[in-house]
UniProtKB/TrEMBL annotation:
<dbReference type="InterPro" id="IPR041414">
    <property type="entry name" value="Raco-like_middle"/>
</dbReference>
<dbReference type="InterPro" id="IPR040506">
    <property type="entry name" value="RACo_linker"/>
</dbReference>
<feature type="domain" description="RACo linker region">
    <location>
        <begin position="5"/>
        <end position="83"/>
    </location>
</feature>
<feature type="domain" description="RACo C-terminal">
    <location>
        <begin position="249"/>
        <end position="500"/>
    </location>
</feature>
<feature type="domain" description="RACo-like middle region">
    <location>
        <begin position="87"/>
        <end position="246"/>
    </location>
</feature>
<dbReference type="InterPro" id="IPR052911">
    <property type="entry name" value="Corrinoid_activation_enz"/>
</dbReference>
<keyword id="KW-0489">Methyltransferase</keyword>
<dbReference type="GO" id="GO:0008168">
    <property type="term" value="F:methyltransferase activity"/>
</dbReference>
<dbReference type="InterPro" id="IPR027980">
    <property type="entry name" value="RACo_C"/>
</dbReference>
<dbReference type="GO" id="GO:0032259">
    <property type="term" value="P:methylation"/>
</dbReference>
<dbReference type="Pfam" id="PF17650">
    <property type="entry name" value="RACo_linker"/>
</dbReference>
<protein>
    <submittedName>
        <fullName>Methylamine methyltransferase corrinoid protein reductive activase</fullName>
    </submittedName>
</protein>
<keyword id="KW-0808">Transferase</keyword>
<dbReference type="Pfam" id="PF14574">
    <property type="entry name" value="RACo_C_ter"/>
</dbReference>
<dbReference type="InterPro" id="IPR042259">
    <property type="entry name" value="Raco-like_middle_sf"/>
</dbReference>
<dbReference type="Pfam" id="PF17651">
    <property type="entry name" value="Raco_middle"/>
</dbReference>
Length: 513
């Protein structure tokens, strides 16, 4: 494999009166003989180690190279042959969860994967709270930066329990949204949120790991961003899905606090992003929570009764504590199909005695002591409407119809866990052939892994950024009109959702057209 790092065993010739080449030159020429054609830089900290290490090693050494964006840098020298011990790290730096994967860079084998909550959460579950916390305050910004780094290191520590090699890794690839990368680099991220949205750094590229306080000898590569809201996690998703290489039309949709969308193929890439709200992570909902132990993540209504699945409750000992994004989508879809809410998302108390009034508004008890309120539904419908019009407007701006799309990639943690049927039922996803719906799972992490193992993909990243055309949704003339239309369940135009109409006919014997 030819990734972002290399590790090579060199059996160097011993200096003689006839061969008075320097130690430095001896290593460089040996590397060239091993097929390393690019320039190699040996920094002074490595030059200082050549003596007496080479003598003691009998001139048989293993050198570690890390790509710095322009050339190879020699970052470690070891006695003997340790070339098989070649490792790297791929990181998905999410605003809620950080995931780190350990790779054998010789074979490409995944040795381990660990995750933890992003330690930035202590300053707010939503990104805006964190941005405002450290705005124009270097001390607080440093706190955010260190929390970000500590999250990555916590995952490395977990990996070391089974494979104590994370500190020996030569390269790390990080994919995250624009704000997360700013925080990792210790850069004020208010620019991401505030007009004119000109960010401070969109292509930070390769940075020495030690400059970021990450305990590696080599370099950290941060995926570039296209815009303030379309970050490196989406570019990484492009590398993973290879959307930019395909003939047919693909739709790539990653929705969370923001919704990021790319439509295109090998000939064009149209992209856009917009705020979707915190509802998908359990925000704004009275009993909302992240997808953690105790969260309701799946809901079904059968025989007039609500049945829920609770994360981590395989033993039956964990009671539901709240509801996460996938559970919310299921709940609203089931309430709609049962007729317990109407097309506006308003409760119909005459349909079931499970609907009651608390705190001055209608609600339903979806689990013992846990209530879902009318205001919760209203807030979530705004989120689902935003998701719908992103896809609809982007298709229209592309001059395409939905039936021309060959693939619909649902990416990110929400796309991984949400029920496609429920998302279509409420009008969040388009009603299209299910075989075209692809769960892209954590494409951000997968794209980071791909790049770690294949340096040639750096050229592909440049190509993607060059080909992408960014659309500002808010500047579309009929944006508000489209937003209002999409706030109905599943939409004011029923013909856009034929399979949902069939479900309603079966569940309620209702025909809308």
């Amino acid at each position: 494999m030819r990734g972002l790092s290399r590790k090579l065993y060199l059996d160097l010739s011993v200096p003689t009166e006839e061969d008075q080449r320097s130690d430095q030159q001896r290593i460089l020429e040996a590397l060239s003989a091993e097929g390393v054609k690019e320039e190699v830089h040996i920094p002074v900290r490595m030059l200082r180690q050549l003596y007496p290490l080479l003598d003691r090693a009998g001139w048989k050494i293993t050198v570690s190279l890390s790509w710095n964006g322009e050339k190879w840098e020699l970052v470690d020298i070891e006695s003997g042959d340790t070339a098989r011990q070649h490792y790297g790290l791929a990181v998905d730096l999410g605003s809620t969860t950080v995931v780190v994967r350990l790779l054998d860079c010789n074979s490409g084998e995944i040795l381990g994967e660990e995750s933890c909550f992003n330690k930035q959460i202590q300053w707010g579950t939503d990104i805006l709270s964190r941005i405002f916390f450290c705005k124009d305050d270097r001390k607080k910004l440093e706190e955010i930066r260190l929390a970000t780094v500590e999250s990555i290191i916590e995952c490395m520590d977990k990996l070391d329990v089974k494979h104590p090699v994370s500190r020996k890794c030569l390269s790390m690839v990080v994919a995250g949204n624009t704000t997360m990368i700013h925080f990792l680099l210790g850069i004020d991220a208010f620019c991401v949120f505030y007009t004119p949205h000109a960010v401070h750094a969109d292509r930070p590229g390769f940075q020495p790991a030690k400059d970021l306080d990450i305990p590696l000898n080599g370099y950290v590569y941060c995926y570039p961003a296209k815009s303030n809201y379309l970050g490196g996690d989406i570019i990484s998703g492009m590398i993973e899905t290879e959307l930019y290489k395909k003939d047919g039309i693909s739709v790539f949709f990653d929705i969370g606090t923001n919704g990021e969308l790319v439509i295109g193929n090998k000939d064009f890439l149209l992209c856009g992003a917009g705020a979707a709200g915190p509802a998908l992570e359990g925000g704004v909902v009275h009993t909302g929570m992240r997808a953690d132990a105790g969260a309701v993540d799946s809901v079904r209504i059968r025989g007039g009764k609500i049945h829920v699945h609770v994360i981590g409750n395989s033993s039956g000992k964990i009671s539901p504590k709240g509801i996460c994004g996938s559970g919310i989508v299921d709940l609203i879809a089931e309430l709609f199909l049962e007729g317990w809410i109407d097309i506006r998302g308003k409760f119909s108390p005459e349909k079931t005695n499970l609907i009651q009034k608390r705190e001055g508004q209608l609600c339903i008890e979806y689990a013992p002591g846990l209530y879902f309120y009318q205001k919760d539904i209203d807030e979530f419908i705004l989120t689902k409407a935003a998701a719908h019009i992103m896809v609809e407007i982007m298709l229209r701006e592309s001059g395409l119809e939905l039936n021309q799309a060959d693939r619909f990639y649902a990416a990110g943690s929400f796309g991984k866990y949400v029920s496609v049927e429920s998302a279509i039922t409420i009008g969040m996803y388009p009603d299209m052939e299910r075989e075209k719906m692809i769960n892209a799972e954590n494409s951000s992490l997968e794209g980071a892994q791909k790049l770690l193992l294949n340096k040639e993909l750096l050229a592909d990243i440049d190509q993607i950024l060059e080909e992408m055309t960014y659309i500002q949704f808010a500047e579309v003339d009929d944006f508000l009109e489209q937003m209002v239309a999409a706030q109905a369940l599943p939409h004011t135009d029923y013909k856009k959702y034929p399979t949902v109409m069939e479900k309603l006919k079966k569940r309620q014997n209702i025909c809308f057209y």
